[in-house]
Write a structure and sequence with these properties.
The protein is α/β, with parallel strands linked by helices. It has six helices and ten strands. It has a single domain, classed as 3-Layer(aba) Sandwich (Rossmann fold). Helix content is 34%, strand content 21%. It has a ten-stranded mixed β-sheet with strand order 1-2-4-3-5-6-7-10-9-8, with helices on both faces. A hairpin with a 2-residue loop joins strand 8 and strand 9. It is globular and about 45 Å long.
Length: 313
């Protein structure tokens, strides 16, 4: 190799090293911001619990019975229906083997769990640096006894493109394991995530569109991929988000609008939210704010996300 060739090789190596370092710095910055946001959200949740926030009324969903007798058969009832289990209303850590790795998640059964009732299942996906119990995604405070909630733990506290195959397999394995053990309405499986968790939520809405009924992404973006089915989707993003720019959230929204056959016309739902017309049974809601930045929106998102999920036909 001549002298010029060696110089070109050295320059190429330097460019690759700098690119890798830049990516690592961005991920570290996002992880720190996500962790700080989750910590603030945790404090808010504890405050809400201490103040004994009044819970919303119980919603009758998918085969729920008003008496103690068995619920009527429901399409999509999982094989776990009829198997006894005791709900505590608290999260229990569970380990599962996925693609040669031990993965963990936290499962919450309502304390009034009825093995003859088919429950909606909500997966919540934390931001970078968090875990399945990180604050800001506390949808169980809104769903109360009307849903089973799973908080998944990312590998090294991340959901990243390099391990996406593992994370998709992780979702599949959790869904199958929970469905076999508990009574799940497989027609009402939902996904909800913040930041990195918003990315994987949007990815699941694309790649597992035949499995999910709906998803909700807070400050998330979209990875490219071949999508399946139509999924109802709720979004919230802030114009001053410096970690995940709002353009990435709009890209995810526009993909869903096209996939669901929505028009560009909207109906104002208040609080900075609009609902797109023409989406049929898979509605799309876009919420936008300013001056908040990168946040899980624990004061805003959980009750609205649960309302969106629970009101779907």
């Amino acid at each position: 190799m001549g002298a010029i060739g060696k110089k070109v090789l050295v320059v190429a190596i330097c460019v690759l090293v700098l690119a890798g370092a830049s990516f690592a710095i961005r991920k570290l910055a996002q992880s720190n911001v996500d962790r700080e946001s989750a910590a603030r959200a945790d404090a808010e949740v504890q405050k809400r619990k201490a103040e004994a926030v009044i819970q919303p009324p119980s919603l009758s969903l998918s085969g729920a019975s008003k008496d103690k007798g068995p619920a009527k058969p429901t399409l999509g009832r999982s094989t776990g229906c009829g198997k006894s289990a005791t709900g505590t209303g608290d999260f229990a850590r569970t380990t599962i083997r996925v693609l040669g790795r031990d993965r963990t998640y936290h499962l919450r059964l309502p304390h009034t769990y009825d093995p003859n009732r088919a429950y909606p299942l909500v997966f919540r996906w934390h931001g970078s640096g968090g875990d399945g119990l990180s604050g800001g995604l506390d949808i169980e405070l809104s769903s109360v006894n009307d849903a089973i909630v799973v908080g998944a733990d990312g590998l090294n506290k991340e959901w990243v493109i390099g391990t996406r195959a593992h994370d998709l397999a992780f979702f599949d394995a959790m869904l199958e394991a929970v469905s076999k053990r508990y009574c799940i309405d497989r027609d009402r499986v939902f996904s909800y995530g913040f930041s990195d968790g918003g990315f994987i939520t949007n990815d699941l809405a694309c790649r597992r569109g035949e499995v999910l009924r709906a998803s909700a992404a807070v400050a998330g973006g979209f990875w490219s991929g071949k999508c399946k089915g139509k999924v109802a989707v709720w979004f919230v993003h802030d114009t001053d988000d410096k970690v995940v720019p709002i353009a990435q959230g709009r890209e995810a929204r526009d993909r869903v609008l096209a996939s669901n056959g929505c028009s560009t016309n909207t109906v104002d739902e208040g609080d900075g939210c609009v609902r797109y017309k023409g989406c049929g049974a898979s509605p799309v809601v876009w919420c936008q704010s300013s001056g908040i930045g990168h946040s899980p929106r624990g004061d805003f998102a959980p009750p609205r996300v649960w309302k969106f999920f629970s009101e779907l036909p």
